[in-house]
Amino acid sequence: MSLRTQAQLFSSSAFFNGPASSVARLVDGIAAAPYEGLWTPTQAAKVASVELAGTFSAISVQLYGTNAADFPQNTQTITVSGSVAQNDSITTTFANPNLPGGSEAVQVTVGATPTVSTVAAQIAAAINADNALAAIGLTATAAAGVVTVSYPSQTPSQAAAGPAEFLAQPANETQITTTVNTGSETVAVALGADGQTIGSAITAAGITAVATMSRYIKARLTSLTGTIASMNYYGAA
């Protein structure tokens, strides 16, 4: 099971012809849902809109916003369920253009007295011990059989370079795939829970008004029939 996230930020837009305008690309080349867009800084907008382009007949989008002081984290979850047994083998693979070779895999072998909670804890520990994943700011916690994976919309090295440099660099898009090599348990990836919903049920292409004062925004696609070429956010203070 996999889930892909991606985003690209753009510099100020002339669309609003104002000193505090911004553009953020929330979706680029997505052909399947669910999709969790990466947080993009948009400034506190008094006027905002979202433009969708592509070939699709049905779509459901939720927009999330936050005024958090710090750059928000993206989250995905990995849920372990079913029957687990000692010596079962599970691999979690992270695809990200900022990783060496574009991906990194962590594998765990289930230990003695296994439960879904102990297996989730093993997966989280393996993720946190991986140096390549740490380099892109990815961390994991575990509770009650659920691993919560968190990562920034930009890598720590990109953040250190400053906003201007970040605009020209790829976002920290991440695809998580889980494989049960041996065993009968189920390991499923899903969207996380973060931010506040500020809009939903966008069902047609074009520009849709969005009332928001959010400092950061992202898109979450819950269903899609067709392909989205791009989804852009436009805002002006």
Structural description of this entry:
- By secondary structure, the chain is mainly beta.
- 12% of the residues lie in helices and 49% in strands.
- The protein is built from four helices and 16 strands.
- It has helices at 116-128, 131-135, 156-161, 163-167, and strands at 2-3, 8-10, 21-30, 35-36, 40-41, 47-66, 73-81, 89-95, 103-109, 139-143, 146-152, 175-182, 186-191, 196-199, 206-209, 216-236.
- The strands form three sheets. Strands 2, 3, 4, 5, 6, 14, 15 and 16 form an eight-stranded antiparallel β-sheet that branches.
Key terms:
single chain, 237 residues, mainly beta, Jelly Rolls, Immunoglobulin-like, 8-stranded antiparallel β-sheet, 4-stranded antiparallel β-sheet
In a few lines, what is going on in this structure?
The protein is mainly beta and 237 residues long.
Number of domains: 2
Shape: elongated
- Biggest sheet statistics: 8 strands, antiparallel
- CATH topology value of the largest domain: Immunoglobulin-like
Mean pLDDT: 79
Topology:
Blueprint: E1 2-3, E2 8-10, E3 21-30, E4 35-36, E5 40-41, E6 47-66, E7 73-81, E8 89-95, E9 103-109, H1 116-128, H2 131-135, E10 139-143, E11 146-152, H3 156-161, H4 163-167, E12 175-182, E13 186-191, E14 196-199, E15 206-209, E16 216-236
Antiparallel strand pairs: 1-12, 2-3, 3-16, 4-16, 5-16, 6-14, 6-15, 6-16, 7-11, 7-13, 8-9, 8-12, 10-11
